[in-house]
Structure prediction request, 640 residues.
Amino acid sequence: MVAAEENPESFFAAAPPLRDADAFAARLAEFLARNSAGIREGGRRRIVCVTSGGTTVPLEQRCVRYIDNFSSGHRGAASTEYFLKAGYAVIFLNRRGSCQPYCRFLPDDSFLKFFDVDAESKVQVAECHAPVVKKAIGDYCKAIEGGSLLKVPFTTIFEYLQLLKLVATSISSIGPRGMFYLAAAVSDFYVPWDSMAKHKIQSGGGPLDMRLSQVPKMLSMLRNQWAPLAFCISFKLETDPDILIQKADMALNKYKMNIVVANLLATYKEEVIIVTDKERSTIRKINKDEDLEMQMIKILSQNHSKYICGITNECNQSPD
Amino acid sequence: MVAAEENPESFFAAAPPLRDADAFAARLAEFLARNSAGIREGGRRRIVCVTSGGTTVPLEQRCVRYIDNFSSGHRGAASTEYFLKAGYAVIFLNRRGSCQPYCRFLPDDSFLKFFDVDAESKVQVAECHAPVVKKAIGDYCKAIEGGSLLKVPFTTIFEYLQLLKLVATSISSIGPRGMFYLAAAVSDFYVPWDSMAKHKIQSGGGPLDMRLSQVPKMLSMLRNQWAPLAFCISFKLETDPDILIQKADMALNKYKMNIVVANLLATYKEEVIIVTDKERSTIRKINKDEDLEMQMIKILSQNHSKYICGITNECNQSPD
Prediction:
């Protein structure tokens, strides 16, 4: 345990290997090549990795029970839409079954797969839903066909961190034009695979005592080794307002994040605080029909521009 | 903890109160009145409570983290369809977001709400999906309009057990014509509400030690107090074949179940073992397009008939 907490590499060494890792690496390379190549109007293409949804921690190798983190994935899905609109290419690293871009007002992502959208984009749905459904399908197809959105699903903490490492080490090739928007709710504690019960834990023997190890803090790895020049934004979600800012500042300094977005479970849809080493600015939802993410992505994109400018002197450029 | 383990009532006393309990009780009473009243062809109406999906165990009162049980809810959803087909009225006590009756081949239940099915039942979907989608919507509407299906969602172990108790004490009014088909994956361990962390558990302090209390075995309450005459079928899911039958026999005797359905995580879709005090019969899937639940419900319904006959002398009757 202690070893894993001190040394992230031993976490990876002990983790169950990623399925289809080679196939994913190939898809990722193809996506990065297509989107980072060439000069786009207003400057070279930026690529953001948006992580979204909660990770699970299996309690048994043949998993019946697991610990999960609350996260609808709504923030990550909404942010992905606004990053694409702002001209970013987006790697959407998302929890299987969590909220998907352009599907926030639809029952489910796979919903889309069940429709034919013809020339007149006729969709047989109830009148009241028709407009939003048509728009969602239109925007979704545009993003997919444009090749600027790559969706990558995960479920467990083991899958998530291995995928994040693969993405990060690849994105490092575009230096400061790469961004990490780490909105996923990542487990703080886990049961190392090798010390995990092989079969379903049996009840009947009185209370169950569990010792969970700390998940190594991968933000340091991301910042210092995987993608040292990338613009990194992490999130701090708390339920206790008294410790929120203090925790955000800690994350900012300890992991050298460029920005920490601080929010409370009770109000995260209405208000966030953007924390940098220079300032703290609170963003509030203005009207209920507007996504808070619209304002957030605008500000974060501007900060990213300044950052790129400072490092490469490619200044005064819009993302696309 | 110890108290809660020995005395189920203290579990309920300490549980967070059910939301809209009165509204639910009213819906339940109305459903039971409609479906238990009157003589149906071949005998009086039977009512089964099908429980489905996994329960969650919150680790914090303002829940960010929780322990979940693996269960797609496919078995409960499929069984509900066959119980309805066999003439039962069904109370479908299901995990929010789990697999829903008639939607097993659809992306999501709420999917249905997005369609208009007109006179020609025209639905604008891809040709290949059109038939299954149309059939699903047709069967679903029939069951809902017929008033013989009541869907009741839950998420936490606290909601599940309080709802089960409400249903059971109500169904007891129809004696042996009531059935419980307990397919839900119910947590064995939980954190009592009053001993639960109020805020998000903080990381950084090294490993996390958790003591989980045993959930009181409510099958005894169901059998002995809530619905003493109901026909009770419980499930035993294991990952280790060596202990499966032994665990099933234990459940049968300890909780006086009428039937225990034993299955292994690796093969539960292809094979189950029906365990009674008289016999053990293995049911296997014959062809891949056929639901195992079709055979299961036929056999369970026959056993239910014998049971009713033995108690009330209402014999040789089909469920409807």
